[in-house]
Amino acid sequence: MNLHNPSIPLAGASNFRDLGGYQGKDGRRLRLRRLFRSDHLAQLSAADIEQLQALQVGRTVDFRGEHERLAQAYTLPEVTQHALSIEPTVVQRAKDMQARGQTLTPEGAAALMEQTYRDFVLNNSPRFAQLFALLLEDDQPLVFHCTAGKDRTGLAAALILRALGVAPDVVMHDYLLTNQLYRRPALPHSEAPEAVLRVIWQVQPSFLEAALQTIDETHGGLAPYLHQALGLGPAELRRLESLYLA
């Protein structure tokens, strides 16, 4: 694959990138500076905020849960925030397991991640439908994010890219870029072993594949899922293409 580098370096966010440039349907490429994915935006510097203003970002979609948003809130000048909460978080699930006395192994952490992705499809598809409804309103530049910008955001990015006709291997490439770009936060001492934390704070192909397999099992494929669960029929897909493909 001959792919561009979508990363946009910011001091206060490590996983901020432009979805533009990938080749989509009919060989058309996603328009630059329209769709951005990121980790949370609560630690942006003044220079970072100026960068977002230069990119003309006017909307953010925040997949974090209520507690996450309160703990790391942000406001951006002339930017409309849309809260589309997806809970519980993987971290909360891991903490709940520890509280029940269960020891989390790397294999168990991977299984937990895969189940979380299945639950995104089973329980949170209405949130992704809301995201697409916003995308269909107009093409005002938009950033969608969660806390690390890797799981909830990663599936959202995959759905957008696939809906616009981007090849599956390129979608996986974009998904796995998190492992190169994301900087784990410095956290207080954790009882979890480092090997477990690496699984939770990174991404693996099997995580995204668990969501896509669940889509196949529950809807018979991506196209029916986009239509039935996310409201993207032929007319909506044509509008999405007209807005975001060049």
UniProtKB/TrEMBL annotation:
Signal peptide: none annotated. It comes from the Bacteria. It holds the Pfam family Y_phosphatase3. Belongs to the protein-tyrosine phosphatase family. This is Tyrosine-protein phosphatase. It comes from Curvibacter microcysteis. The lineage of its organism: Bacteria, Pseudomonadati, Pseudomonadota, Betaproteobacteria, Burkholderiales.
